[in-house]
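Response to reviewer comment R2.3. The reviewers asked that we include at least one raw input/output pair. We reproduce the pair for DUF4872 domain-containing protein here without editing.
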Amino acid sequence: MTGKKQLKARIRARMAKTGESYTTARRHVAGPPEATETPAVDGGWRLHGGRHPDSAVITNILRNGGVDVSEPLVFVAGGGLGAGYILWEFKHDDSRTLVLGFRNQWQYPQRWLEKTLTRLGVRYDTHNTGGAQAASRRLGAELDAGRACVIMPDRYRIGYWHLPAALDGRGGHPVIAYRRDETGVYLDDRNLARLRVPAEMVDSARARVGSYKNMLVVPHPGEVAAAEAVRAGLRDCAEHLSQASDSFSLPAWRKWSRTILDEKSAKGWPKVFADGRGLAGAMLSAWEAIEPVGQDGGNLRDLFADGLDEAAALLGLPLGGLAAEFRRIHGLWHGFAEAALPAAEYGALRELTAAVRESLIADGESPAETARELWELRAAADRAAVDLDRFADMSERLAEIYAAETAAVAELRAMIAG
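Raw output as returned:
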């Protein structure tokens, strides 16, 4: 037991230091898994983990259905990368939160899910039941029939993230419901140990957010059209990121770079954070979004690079150079995250964030006390004034990322069109 605790502590420390995902940090600390090591099994369901919630739900349902497919290829088939930046200001708790989009159609999770399944040639049923009781019965019937389902629970209401009440209704990400018992539902949220949530909490969480209220997608695993799906996904990625939108395409990074230094705009950071208060929370939300240690899998440029390497062999295209470039861009995002939330100042915040994530993945639960400590420390950091001198450096880093991604997407577009 002592050895296991020491291993967990070392993994958490590395996650906090590097921003790496649990799987990557564990590999560096404990070495690669043995070839004979198999995923944990719960009631016949194999818990494979995953890197990004949206691509992981499809991959894990297909793999549990006997389909040999990788998460990077599923991610590419869905259109790969996206870009988006929104700064929300909430008066009720005096907080500022950054919402960053890194996946194609990041603002439309159900559309992305259904588009990706369609491209892969996977049949699926969709149900959007209005009433909570009917929605609960539908989910129960599908699970009793042995069919894994994709649901979209609100993160606060689902409980296992132990979020503060101020985040009630802020949304969530797709997870798999794969079986139930008399009072609970078993979920796959990239966890590697069993995760059971009381049924009434699942029902409440599914009904909370109006835009995807009680969403239920039931894929039927079967042979996938991988090559066609990947080619269509690459074209979708290149077209989408070549658009002029400064909210939902690459110009969002240029807009963000300029907004950080804009002293006149109401949304300019010199005005929003004039007294430095609230900046720590905003920077933590940026770090969580950009680094794989967060809830959504990070900036995803590394996942896309892995998909490009697999697509090169599948399609016979010379995509290796682009894969290397997107790994370099992934490093640029890591540099930005480090500048935004440096470990020297915010080590404790980073360590607690990593502890919550590590516990959920490795143990199927995150300790409520650890989460409470995280949010208390975050609130205290938000109340303290912060030096704004870092804005110029952050702006320059974003401008570099924008230029690099724009050039890489232009190369991808030319290659796919050829």
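The chain has two domains: 1-37+80-107+225-418, 42-68+123-220. The first strand starts at residue 40 and ends at 42. Further pairs are available on request from the corresponding author.
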